[in-house]
Amino acid sequence: MSLFDKFQPTKEMYYALREQTGRDPFGVSMDEMKGPTRAIVKGREIVLAGTNNYLGLTYDESAVKAAQDAVAQSGTGTTGSRFANGTYDAHRQLEIDLAAFLGFKHCIVFSTGYQANLGAISSLAKPPEDVILIDADCHACIYDGCQLSGAETIRFRHNNPSSLEKRLQRLDEKVNGKLVCLEGMYSMFGDTAPVKEFVDIAHKYGAHVLLDEAHSFGVFGDNGRGLAEAQDIIGDVDFYTGTFSKSLASIGGFVASNHDELEYLRFSSRPYMFTASPSPANIAAASAALKRIASDQSMRITLWENAKRVHAAFTQLGFEVCAPASPVIAVKLAGKAQAFKAWNFLMENGVYVNLAIPPGTPNATSILRLSVSAAHTNEDLDIVISAYTALSEMLANDDSKD
Amino acid sequence: MTSIQEDDDLVFRKICSLIEPLNEKGVKLTRDTDLIADLEIDSVAVLDVVMDIEDNYDISIPVNTISEIKTIGELVDAIHAIKKEQS
Ligand SMILES: Cc1ncc(COP(=O)(O)O)c(C=O)c1O
To answer: What is the ipTM of this complex?
Structure first.
C-alpha cells in the first residue's frame, strides 16, 4: 500500500475518458478572457455558458473602477486574518451594506463562500449534544462544515420537507441544538427548495435553519435577495449564507442573521480566524456589484428572459432538462462516456459548459450544466442553441453509455 | 461465509436487495463485501442506499456512522444497534 494507491481507480477512469476525446473537461484553461461571456481557448473564441456569472457583473464599469481604486489605495492584499490585521474599514462597511440589503441585523464576511458555510456550521453545532440535519444534495462545503463540526449529521431527502420532519421526530429528547441546512437554488440541476415549508417545520421542532443562497442571491426575489425573499420568508431564516463568487462577481462569502450570537463566530470560527481576509480589490468589487444589484433590476430581468429562452429551446430539442426554467439549465446524458463526448462536441462547436459526473451529481447522473448570464447577448445564445441543436442530432445516433 | 440465501438475517437480506441494482460486476454479496472497494459504489451512492434503509426501518443513521462503515456486515450491525436504540 502506498499513499497514492487511492488515486488509481479515478485516474484510470478519468484518463480513459480524456483519451477518447483528446480534451480535459476538468483542466480547461481560458487562455484569454474577452469579456463576461467570451474567452479564447486553444486559439478559438468560445461562448462561456458554464460560469456562475449570473448577472454578468465581472466587467461592470463601476466594479472594475472600484477594484482598481482599492488596489491603489489599500494595496494588493491584507496579509492577515479578519481576526487580526485583516479587517479594513471596507470589510466592515460591506458587512453593514449586506445586512441592510438583506434586512438582517448582523453579517460577517469570510474569505470565500466555502469558508462561510464551513465556519458557520462548524462553530454553531458542536458534538456531542447538537445535531445537524442536511438536505441530501447539499454542496460539498456544507458536508465539510459538518465534518469539521464533528456533530452528528443526518441527511434528509432532497427538497422533501416531510423527510426532514420524520428525522426531527426521531431525534432523542436529549438533543440540544438542531441545525437544519439547505440551499436556495441548487447548483447542479438548478432546482429550488421549498424554503418556507422547511423553515416552518424546522421551527416547529425548535431547530434553526441555515440557508445557503450562493446561487440564488441576486437571481431570485423582487429585489434580488434570493429565494427566501421570493417565498416571503427571509426574516425567518436564522442564518443566511452567500458568496461573492457568483452574482457579486468577486471572491468572498458571508453569513447574515438576526441572532446577536452570530457575532461570536468572530471568536470561535476557525475558517474565519485562521485564513487571510479578502483582498481590498475583492471587497471593493463585491461592494460595487451589491450597489448595482440594489439599484438596477434590469439585469435580473434579462437573466430570466435568457434562461427562459434557452430552457424552452432545449425542451423543444427533446433534451431531458433537470428542472423547470432557471439560470442553471442542466441536461441529462446516458452516462459518463456520453457526457464526455457531448461536452467535447459542444467545445468543438464553440460553447463551454460544465461537465458534471458522479459522485459530484445527484442520483448518480451525468449532466451538462449550462448557466445563463444577463451578459449573454442574443448572438451568444444563438451560438449556444445551434450547438445544442447539432448535439441533439449527434446524440440521436449515439449509443455510448459508461 | 454464508450466502444471502442462507442468511436468515432480514436486515442483511434487505440491504442486499437494495445494493443488488448497483452491483454491476455481479460480485457475490456477503457480510465481508466491501461497499467501495469490492462493489465500486461511490460514497454518495452508499449514502443514498442508506437513505432507503432509513425509510424502510424508520430510523436515522448519522453520516458520521456511515463514514466509518466499510462492509455490508458492518452496515447490518450498525442498523441493528440503531434499531434497538431508537425503538
Ligand atoms: C451551494 C454553494 N455554496 C457555497 C459555494 C462556495 O462558494 P465560494 O466559491 O465562494 O467558495 C458554492 C460554489 O461552489 C456553492 O455552489
So the answer is: 0.88
